Amino acid sequence: MAYNVKLVKLINGDMVLAKWNEEKNCLQDPAILQMVPTQTGVQMMLMPFGYPFDSELKGEIDGKHILYEYQNVPEELKAKYLEASSNLTLSTPADLQNLSNLTGAGGGKITDLSSLLKK
Q: Where are the domains of the chain?
């Protein structure tokens, strides 16, 4: 099943990444996109919308609370959201070029999403 993942700004100022349900006119399984300053710039962090009381991406937000919809959502950000909401790891064409990184050899790698902000 393909999901229509949207990045929106809500009327309260939160940036939310969620699955769009056209029939119900609502965002489902919302995650807040937080910008975290670091010494090298800014990193992005996805957290459940109900954090700290909810630890899973669950719930709905009515579409009437959307102030702005971003037209360009980076595919890497969508993939990270879908991984978090489904507990599955998604592969990209770049992963297939270097299969040794998928085996876990050499330790885990942390994805730096801050490069998405540098355009």
A: 5-117
Fold of 5-117: SH3 type barrels. (2.30.30)
How far does Cα 64 stand from its chain's mean position?
21
Question: How many C-beta atoms lie closer than 10 Å to residue 26's C-beta?
Answer: 19
Q: Is 106 helix (H, G, I), strand (E, B) or coil?
A: coil
Report the alpha-carbon distance of residue 97 to residue 34 in Å, rounded: 31
Give the integer Cα–Cα distance in Å for 48 and 31: 5
φ and ψ at residue 114, rounded to 5 degrees: -65, -25
- Rounded Cα distance, 31 and 82, in Å: 10
The CA R_g of the chain, rounded to the nearest whole Å, is 15
DSSP calls for 2-24? ---EEEEEETTS-EEEEEEETTT
**Is pLDDT of 1 > 70?**
no
Question: Which tokens belong to 55?
Answer: 């630890």
The 10s digit of each residue's pLDDT in 77-102 is: 998 999 888 866 555 555 555 555 55
Q: What's the pTM value of the predicted model, to 2 decimals?
A: 0.69
